[in-house]
Design brief:
284 residues; alpha+beta; three-stranded antiparallel beta sheet
């Protein structure tokens, strides 16, 4: 074939004997990975991503003893938060004006609104506490999500409600009882906030069972956690490694993924373009 006759199987601007440029169909970006994606090599291939240093997170200790220890710590921690919740309730709930009589204390007003306000404040604070506690447990203990955390969250929220109720109702209770015992008849004073729509009753005279708005924090926590679990995109509820996310094994690790074409090494440098007007060598 003469030098003036072009080779139909060779591109016009590629000199004979030069390394052909990588085929765009072979080295082009995989589906869903644009040329500007991390790990893109200008030579026309994709490098492994994430970098080799990225690896799966360390495994979580799921032995029964460890799981129960974490659940117990969660219950105690939530119950301890009932202290600040009770102080907040006592600060927001109004005291009820009463008057001392020979039979004891009676309301100073025929139909006071303060007891209803105390129940309302406890209910609102309890629901908010349950929702925030569920979100915090779901976020902070993401690698231990499951029924054990749900049970611990529910019990802990119930414990927080009991602590908040007992602490809040006792603020100012000593002064009220002292006035009730020593004040003369007709003396007005205030009764601290207490619950009328909730409390503890004894079943069969022995087993104490909470009822009413004492159950609202536990109910709100359980419902919120269940909704978060229902909207989770992971079947196990725990974050799992993804090809384009952190925690995916790098090359060389078990299960590593390479985005380059199988069996085709990436070229180290791009081929130099031919000089203007350069002609290829004579081919016979």
């Amino acid at each position: 074939m003469s030098p003036d006759t072009p080779d139909p199987h060779r591109p016009a601007d590629t000199p004979a004997g030069a390394a052909p440029t990588p085929d765009a169909a072979t080295t082009g970006p995989p589906a869903g990975r644009p040329p500007t994606a991390p790990g893109y090599d200008p030579a026309g291939s994709y490098l492994p991503w994430p970098p080799p240093s990225a690896g799966p997170p360390p495994p979580v200790d799921r032995r029964p003893g460890r799981t129960l220890a974490v659940a117990g710590a969660l219950v105690l921690g939530l119950a301890a938060l009932g202290g600040p919740l009770g102080l907040l309730w006592a600060a927001l709930a109004p005291d009820t004006p009463v008057r001392k009589t020979a039979e004891g204390a009676v309301y100073a007003q025929p139909q006071p609104e303060q007891p209803i306000a105390a129940d309302g404040w406890f209910s609102l604070l309890g629901i908010g506490f349950g929702v925030l506690a569920a979100i915090a447990v779901w976020t902070l203990l993401r690698r231990r999500r499951g029924p054990v955390d749900l049970a611990a969250l529910t019990v802990g929220a119930l414990g927080a409600a009991l602590v908040a109720w007992q602490l809040g109702r006792r603020i100012g209770l000593d002064g009220y009882e002292r006035l009730l015992a020593t004040a003369p008849a007709g003396t007005p004073f205030d009764k601290p906030a207490d619950l009328r729509a909730g409390g503890i009753e004894r079943v069969l005279g022995v087993l104490p069972v909470p009822y009413g708005n004492l159950l609202l924090p536990a109910f709100a926590a359980a419902v919120t956690y269940t909704l978060l679990a229902g909207w989770s995109r992971w079947p196990s509820l725990r974050p799992e490694p993804e090809p384009d996310g952190a925690g995916w094994p790098g090359p060389g690790a078990a299960g590593g993924v390479s985005w380059g074409p199988a069996g085709t090494p990436a070229p180290t440098t791009a081929p130099e373009p031919p000089a203007p007007g350069a002609a290829g060598p004579t081919r016979g």
